[in-house]
Amino acid sequence: MHLTLTAERRLDGGVLERAFTLDGIPGLLWTPATESAPEPAPLVLLGHPGDLHRMHPRLAARARHCAADGFAAAAIELPGGGDRPRSPEADQARADLQRALAAGERPSEDVIDRLVLPLVDQAVPEARAALDALLALPGIGGPVGYSGGIISIGVRLALVDPRIAAAVLFAGSYVPRTMFDEARRLTLPLHVLLQWDDEGNDRQLALDLFDAFGSPEKTLNANMGGHTGVPPSAAEAAARFLARHLR
Question: Of 36, 190, 47, which is closest to residue 123 (Cα–Cα)?
Answer without folding.
Answer: 47
